[in-house]
Amino acid sequence: MMLKQWLYVFFACMVSIGTTRAQLVIEITSGADQLLPIAVVPFGYNGVDALPEDIAQVVEDDLARSGLFQPVPRANMLSMPSKEEDVFYRDWRLLKSDYVVIGNINKLPNGQYRIGFELLNVLSQKPVQKHASIDVNARNFRDAAHYISDKVYELLTGSRGAFSTRILYVTAEGDKRSPLFKLQVADADGHRPQVVVESKEPILSPSWSMDGRNIAYVMFRNRRPSIFIQELATGKRQQVAQFRGLNGAPAWSPDGKKLALVLSKDNNPEIYTLDIATQKLERMTNHYAIDTEPSWEPDGKGIVFTSDRGGNPQIYRLDTRSKRVERVTFEGELNTRARMTPDGRYLVTVQKNDGNYHVALQDMNTGRVQTLTETYLDESPSIAPNGSMVMYATTDRGKGILAVVSVDGLVKYRLPSAEGDVREPSWSPYFK
Amino acid sequence: MSVNKLGKFAVIGLSAAWIVGCSTTASDTDSSTVAEDAAAMEQAEADAANADQAYGAGEGDAVTSVIVDDVAAQQAEVDPLADVQVVFYFDFDKSIVRPESREALAKHAEFLVANPDARIVLEGHADERGTREYNMALGERRAKAISRYLTIQGVAASQIETVSFGEEVPVAFGSDNNAWQLNRRVEVRYE
């Protein structure tokens, strides 16, 4: 029952507009050593018609992409049980699989599908997750699969999965000299992309509200930038900033009430906060240097931002109450566009070293810095809500693509797109 | 007036209409896909109407057509600037006006001082390196450097608007010094 309620809420948040476009496909380019072997058995089905998605395959892909699991290939499976009583644990021990996910799908008289699943521990021969089920429509099969992946991930790793989250990103398609810009939303695995806004003028800096219902972005109109807030489900949007000069880098506060943004209306780029309900602007920085790319700390007490007040761009922290500013990054030729992990432990930046731009991770406790990526022109890092992965934009053979790296740097995969230049990923929060 | 002349006017009228059509299409192409339903569409229109007053004028079709005609007429008269450079280049991560830009900028300044009703937009751009919002700030810094150069020569600040496109609108493609150089620029656009 709890499961059902959760799903209904989730589906209510979903947008169902736009057409299916060229999809992003996952390729794992490197992985960690210690992987947990798990078998995701194809789910049984009581019907004869074709199902919209192979749920077990989606779950298997999710788990593999996390870099923590080693799925058992289907071809090696000695049996394909869909009920616990049909499971011969010895078969799975032979395959050195520690865990088995089984499930079955039943078509209901109302046209929906009831998807049941169980997670079994091969060594103890006991269920980790007893049989549970969710009812979905045909178009929500992938949601059901991501839900199961989240459950399995959480039960086996102890931390919350982020498979049911989504991403925003911008594509530039068509003629390079006058491309069509599209702001798109897709599942975190790149599937089911939908166009949210399109324009002949640039769109950039998409950002999520903390409940995942609203987005903010910068869009040019008549050759000037404005900041918009848009409700994802309805498309209703509101222009919240169109001052002379810069209107950029919107970032939602953790309590959802404010937007941090960059304006140059008072001459040079400064960080402001905008109270969304009252439309009241408050200037947060005051310096003749460039101050930009604000991002809130998880507790909302501070804003990290990029400033070249020290000569070259580095990350600074602003206390939102006292407005005191202190420098945070010291390693690298420059550091820009910081994002903090949800636990506040790490700061992710775009760091320049020897002329190359890479995503770097700074431990806020020890100050230790680690470079996470090594591709060309890596930028726009965005952290998964469980803090496990960082999605970023990079360039491959002259084309913008999205890629993901784990926070420990061990797992990397890419999401190549068939269409256009892909950039500026923004990972959603959990959908409440 | 001969029939022939009338015909010419018709052609001019049509092409003007075509230009207007193009410009309005360009400004109206941004659309929420979700905005297919009437309510959202109205909202989008309301947004456009609520535009900051500094920019609101160009939104309506009628106004746009007048502006386009005026610009066309003005450009016909304003031959003094016909051959003057309108794109000015910058060094990497720098916003210093280069010495070779000065002569052409002086001509723009001269024209703007002589024509106090003329308005320009300085559109600043950056190359692809560095983050997008930082490049927005950098593009603006470059546009402001040109703006300062013009105001020092007597151009009224009210005649100049600076806008940055960051790295979003490159003119050269490829990841090499040549492309980057061509993209680090400020374009002068007469309104």
UniProtKB/TrEMBL annotation, chain A:
Cellular component per GO, a single term? periplasmic space
Q: Name one Pfam family in it.
A: PD40
InterPro entries reported in the protein's UniProt record: 6-blade_b-propeller_TolB-like, Tol-Pal_TolB, TolB_N, WD40
Sorted alphabetically, the Gene Ontology BP terms of this entry are: cell division; protein import
Instruction: Tell me where in or outside the cell this protein is found.
Output: Periplasm
Q: Which UniProt keywords apply?
A: Cell cycle, Cell division, Periplasm, Signal
Give start and end of each TolB N-terminal domain.
Answer: 24-127
Could you say which residues form the signal peptide? 1-22
Keyword Cell division found: yes
Task: Just give the chief location class.
Answer: periplasm
Top-rank taxon: Bacteria
- Family per UniProt? Belongs to the TolB family.
Q: Oligomeric state and partners?
A: The Tol-Pal system is composed of five core proteins: the inner membrane proteins TolA, TolQ and TolR, the periplasmic protein TolB and the outer membrane protein Pal. They form a network linking the inner and outer membranes and the peptidoglycan layer.
HAMAP family linked to this entry? TolB
Q: What does this protein do?
A: Part of the Tol-Pal system, which plays a role in outer membrane invagination during cell division and is important for maintaining outer membrane integrity.
Instruction: Report the protein name in the record.
Output: Tol-Pal system protein TolB
UniProtKB/TrEMBL annotation, chain B:
Q: What is its main location?
A: membrane
User: By its UniProt entry, which PROSITE patterns does this protein fall under?
Assistant: OMPA_1 (PS01068), OMPA_2 (PS51123), PROKAR_LIPOPROTEIN (PS51257)
Q: Signal sequence span per UniProt?
A: none
Q: Which domain of life is it from?
A: Bacteria
The record ties this protein, via Gene3D superfamilies, to: OmpA-like domain
Has the keyword DNA repair been applied to this entry?
no
List locations, semicolon-separated.
Cell outer membrane
**Residues covered by the OmpA-like domain:** 77-191
Tell me the GO BP annotations in alphabetical order: cell division
Which keywords describe this protein according to UniProt?
Cell cycle, Cell division, Cell outer membrane, Lipoprotein, Membrane, Palmitate, Signal
Which Gene Ontology cellular component terms are annotated?
cell outer membrane
Q: How does it sit in the membrane?
A: Lipid-anchor
Instruction: Give the InterPro entries listed for this entry.
Output: Bact_OuterMem_StrucFunc, OMP_bac, OmpA-like, OMPA-like_CS, OmpA-like_sf, Pal, Pal_lipo_C
- Give the record's family classification: Belongs to the Pal lipoprotein family.
Q: How does it assemble?
A: The Tol-Pal system is composed of five core proteins: the inner membrane proteins TolA, TolQ and TolR, the periplasmic protein TolB and the outer membrane protein Pal. They form a network linking the inner and outer membranes and the peptidoglycan layer.
- Sum up the protein's function in the record's words: Part of the Tol-Pal system, which plays a role in outer membrane invagination during cell division and is important for maintaining outer membrane integrity.
Q: Return the protein name.
A: Peptidoglycan-associated lipoprotein
What is the organism of origin for this protein? Marinomonas algarum
